[in-house]
Design goal:
Rossmann fold, Aspartate Aminotransferase, domain 1, alpha/beta, 19 strands, Aspartate Aminotransferase, domain 2, five-stranded parallel beta sheet, about 45% helix, seven-stranded mixed beta sheet, about 550 residues, 4 domains
Length: about 550
């Protein structure tokens, strides 16, 4: 076997769509799901035998592109999809060792072409909270020897746009740096920066007929730049005849039926906005998009959502570099309604969220004695256990470290927090084995059939997870929020809200046993059921929910 060059050996293979997509709803690769204009299909049917047998000629296409784009004929060149346009820029301008700026997440082919060229890649990340454009980071990264920057606008996979003022700052930052602006999805944004190619000699605009025009299977795109750049690029492209006669005929027909494309684009934009609103209403973060797709943060549900759609022969895209996200191509209103009908039931399952102590676990022989013994240790005398209960009922002392500290302060003794925690935890390591699980596991499993189950507790995370593991219940609860996960403790609702957001539940009941639990539920605007010693036990309460799917 021949050994490929070093740059190729280091590369990971590109993850292509794969086979068997023709009989599915293809929401994974941002294709036009209605297909090309009828005029395109007619043009393809009329291809002559002579055209098939002759190497393709491009004068008519070049002229049509010039008129369609309103650019000089010698400033545009057709390519085998915009991918070839992008690759050819790297082939023409990037030497081995040249510095190239790439953004993440963005179109993965930029990295592939940079690697093939042997370039040194400098990565700049979008801001992962909202995927806003990192203009200052980019400007700080541009150096005199930076050879190229690749910018997708709208960006893939986020659908976000780059403001024109930011593009201008980048273009002007280094006139010797090639600025590739990939506008594959510009039809859906109804914006283009083609005019920059005439204003700046370092700007390259790549566009395609694959997306809005529905010609992905024919591989036809084009590159726009200054005529001197097009002349240089044509030296790489000219011998290849990479745009075949079918693509030439189809693109000519597509440009003659722009009304068809405009109507399709308008529908996709309308459906995109409605679908985004629907997904937001289900509690998911949708990155505002100007393309024909949306990026949605499903979190831990991403795999389940993708699989549920796949079972119904609907394909969506999961990116390895964006854990918890799915990119979903926007189809027609009817197609997206199918998607919503599958996802909605998965998102709207109601939730039962539990406090731990006094609800799931009887901690009367563990945490309460720890409070007493820790206080007695520092005070050097006995205290009444009733004083602990009085503080708990008063509210604001759900955290047992807080409760212990408050008792000490009542006696006029201030002790460092870390000393209280250390002493308390040393006692708890023995007392924890006195705890008792209060709920039958079979009852919990029956509840899981109709409800999501979660925990919001004032325990430290270490203790909460240890208790669940000790009782063999760690797989039952889908989310566990503890004191360590929040800035504001009970009765603040922060932890309860975090649990609700993680579960994506539209209906919630919180089960607690204290004034703080009740107040947290009130402030989170969720229903509350109090578990009290003299009332019905938690098992009796939950048995009423076993056969219920909603309330």
């Amino acid at each position: 076997m021949l050994t490929p060059k070093a740059s190729i050996q280091k590369m990971e293979p590109y993850s292509s769509p794969g086979e068997g997509r023709m009989d599915t709803l293809r929401l994974d690769f941002n294709e036009n799901l209605l297909g090309a204009s009828p005029k395109v299909i007619e043009a393809l049917r009329n291809i002559s035998k002579e055209e098939c047998g002759c190497y393709p000629e491009y004068p008519d296409l070049n002229k049509a592109l010039s008129q369609f784009l309103k650019v000089e004929e010698n400033c545009v060149i057709p390519t085998n999809g915009s991918d070839e346009a992008i690759k050819t820029i790297f082939d023409t301008y990037v030497e081995k060792g040249d510095e190239v700026l790439l953004l993440s997440p963005s179109y993965s082919m930029y990295e592939l072409y940079a690697q093939v060229a042997g370039a040194k890649i400098v990565w700049i990340s979008y801001r992962l909270d909202d995927f806003s454009f990192p203009i200052e980071e980019i400007l700080n990264a541009i150096r005199p020897n930076t050879r190229l920057i690749a910018l997708a606008n709208p960006n893939n996979p986020t659908g976000t746009m780059i403001q024109r003022k930011d593009l201008l700052r980048i273009v002007e930052a280094n006139p010797k740096m090639a600025v590739l602006i990939d506008e594959a999805y510009r039809s859906y944004a109804k914006e283009t920066n083609i005019d920059l190619a005439a204003m700046y000699s370092n700007v390259f605009i790549a566009q395609t007929f694959s997306k809005a025009h529905g010609l992905a299977g024919l591989r036809i795109g084009y590159l726009i730049s200054a005529k001197e750049n097009i002349e240089a690029i044509s030296k790489v492209l000219s011998p290849s005849y990479s745009v075949d006669c079918l693509a030439v005929a189809a693109s000519l027909a597509a440009m003659e039926d722009q009304a068809y494309v405009d109507a399709y684009v308008d529908e996709i934009i309308s459906v995109r906005e409605q679908f985004s609103k629907n997904m937001i209403s289900l509690g998911f973060q949708v990155i505002p998009s100007r393309a024909n797709f949306v990026l949605i943060r499903f979190g831990k549900w991403a795999g389940q959502m993708k699989e549920a759609l796949r079972k119904q022969k609907i394909l969506v895209r999961e990116r390895s570099d964006l854990e918890g996200f799915l990119r979903i191509t926007i189809g027609t209103a009817e197609q997206m309604q199918r998607v919503l009908a599958i996802l909605q039931p998965l998102c709207s399952k109601p939730a039962l969220i539990f406090d731990m102590d006094g609800v799931l676990i009887d901690e009367s022989r563990s945490y309460r004695p720890c409070i007493v013994k820790t206080a007695e240790y520092f005070l050097g005398k006995k205290i009444h256990p009733e004083s602990v209960e009085a503080l708990k009922q008063k509210g604001g002392y759900n955290n047992d470290y807080d409760c212990t500290e408050a008792i000490l302060l009542e006696y006029g003794l201030a002790v460092k927090r870390e000393e209280i925690v250390e002493r308390f935890d040393s006692y708890y390591q023995d007392f924890k084995f006195s705890e008792k699980w209060l709920l039958d596991e079979q009852l919990l499993l029956k509840l899981k059939e109709n409800f999501q189950l979660g925990i919001f507790t004032g325990r430290p995370k270490r203790d909460a997870l240890d208790a669940l593991k000790r009782f063999g219940k760690e797989s039952i609860f889908e989310v566990v929020i503890t004191d360590d996960d929040v800035k504001q403790k009970k009765p603040a609702p922060e932890g309860l809200i975090l649990a609700i957001q993680s579960l994506r539940a539209n209906k919630v009941i919180y089960f607690g046993d204290s004034k703080d639990d009740r107040e947290a539920a009130r402030r989170a605007s969720v229903a509350f059921i109090e578990v009290i010693p003299q009332g019905p036990g938690i098992t009796e309460i939950l048995e009423r929910f076993v056969c219920q799917k909603e309330w």
